[in-house]
Amino acid sequence: MIRSFATAAVTASLLAAPAFAQSTSKSGAPMAEPQIAQPAQPMAPAAPRFSWTGGYVGGQLGFGQTSVTGDSNRLGGTAGVFAGYRMDMGQAVLGVEGVVTPVLPGSSDLPGGDSIRGTASLLLSAGMPFGPDQRTLAYVNAGPTIMRTGGSGVSSETSTGATLGVGVDYMLNDNTMLRTGLSHTQVKSVGAANARVRTTSANVGVGFKF
Questions:
Q1: For tag attachment on the chain, is the N or C end more exposed, with fewer CB atoms within 10 Å?
Q2: Which positions are tagged coiled coil (predicted)?
């Protein structure tokens, strides 16, 4: 009889186990709902990158110093015009520019009675664009310069030298350009006295890109 009672107890416990597990599952903490992945929000399109490729023209004013061999340094204003063309290569911008400067800093008189009548330069430039949409361009330029001189009753003469400069151009919009820069020009054997002339100036200008 004892054996029958033990067998009945074991059987009852085995039958009660699934029911106990089920009741525990039902009475326990609610199961977390599955998370549904939200679709990624589309990113705003990036602003179009500005291209420096194209031609441009403009004018500039400045202030600087002219040094002449055998004479004192001269300070004064300068004025000129420029025109050029650039190619935007992505990480670099290459270009060529012509600059005509009829007014140099200080007096234009030279020893021997001649006077400076202006310069003309042909400059090659290389620069790097930067900024949020690449509208700012820092560059260096260099190239040959011709200085024209003349005197009373004397035909004009030309002397050859070189110009080196640095600058920063900024596009206000797709067509209007602001400019600031420094330039240094040196020309030897100028005028009847074969003087050496050096000019250094800081310039600001406005240009139009097309």
A1: N
A2: none
